[in-house]
Amino acid sequence: MSTLTAYHSEYGCDFVELAGYRLPGRYRPLVEEYAAAQTAALIDRSFLGKVLVRGRDREVLLHRLSTNEMRGLQPGESRVNLFTNAKGRVVDLVEMLAQEDGYLLLTSPGRGAVMSKWIDKYTFREDVQAAEVSKDWAVISLLGARAVMQLEEIFGDHAALPAGRFVKVQWRDHELLLHHPHAATLARYNLIVVAAAAPALWQELLRDFVPVGFQVHESLRLRRGIPAADHEIVESYNPHEIGLLPFINFEKGCYIGQEVIARLDSYQKVQRQLMGLQLASGPEPAAGAAVLAAAQEIGTVTSVAPAITGPFALALAVIRKAYAQPGSRVEVAGPQGAVPAVLRELPFAPDSD
């Protein structure tokens, strides 16, 4: 449960459940929320898992467990990283924030405990302690082109941060982290604050930002082709297949799953690719639906978002590479018959719906 539940319950509707959080699907018509998300909007993303990793050997261990370069990450910097298993499959996509005394890991929804246990599993003699702190901190994310300008009115020059940086700022009686994340998220900025202070911060931000619900969140995620846990980030797919190569450093040393991931790259063994689907009007298919070409199954739908600004719903699907041609016409199996669709490159073009 989020500390913002009272606000969500009073003003939200079309609720969804995610990782133990009851989230409003929307607060107002989706067209209005989508327009606000292009300018200045906020969303409660406290559903992200949080893990605090401390100890003298934290950098060495995390570098050994993840796909990206960790060494030399300075306090105030963040980096997107992947944790993979021995089969080269993704355990989670994580943004790591380096602090003076440890790393704060922002995990996928509901993955805080998973990642804490994963780190513990591979901690032997190292001086490392991983603790899940998901309920202790709230995350309020800001969206839209005017987000930085509006944020500067509250926090001044602190808001002028390059991607992959964060700063501690004082707000009333609380210290919060003002974070400009990398491209693996739809947020322009994250405000990470102790959970008890989130309702007051939310109310102050409402003066300049319009709240949006989870349906717009998912629409924006799909448009940018960002994979999500339990949709694209599942045991079935490796990082190559779901668009996560930017977060793999092929020059670093060994890590769990490294041999499999390197072999797939070196020998061109990747068989599937994450693609967008532009769906014709009609019943929206569900995640897990088969994608068909000439009645032959060529892929699987992983995420679906409703039509908002136009007639087309959008989806993500993992497609066999031989058929992953943008513009190709396909069908998606559904309970009421096949739905026509067109394969699109990711990210989607602005006018895709």
Shape by Cα distribution: globular
Tell me what portion of residues adopts beta-strand conformation: 25-35%
Secondary structure category: alpha+beta
Instruction: Please tell me the CATH architecture of the largest domain by its name.
Output: 2-Layer Sandwich
The main sheet comes to:
6 strands, mixed
| Number of beta-strand segments | 19
User: Any idea what the CATH superfamily of the largest domain is called?
Assistant: Probable tRNA modification gtpase trme, domain 1
CATH topology of the largest domain: Gyrase A, domain 2
State the end-to-end CA separation: 33 Å
**Residues in helices, as a percent range:** 10-25%
Q: What is the level 1 CATH name of the largest domain?
A: Alpha Beta
Averaged pLDDT: 94
Low-confidence stretches: none
Descriptive notes:
- A hairpin with a 2-residue loop joins strand 15 and strand 16 (296-305).
- The protein is an alpha+beta fold.
- The chain is globular and about 60 Å long.
- A six-stranded mixed sheet has the order 10-11-12-9-3-13. A six-stranded antiparallel β-barrel has the order 14-17-16-15-18-19.
- It contains eight helices and 19 strands.
- The mean pLDDT is 94.
- Helix content is 20%, strand content 33%.
- The protein has two domains: 1-260, 2-Layer Sandwich (Gyrase A, domain 2); 271-353, Elongation Factor Tu (Ef-tu), domain 3.
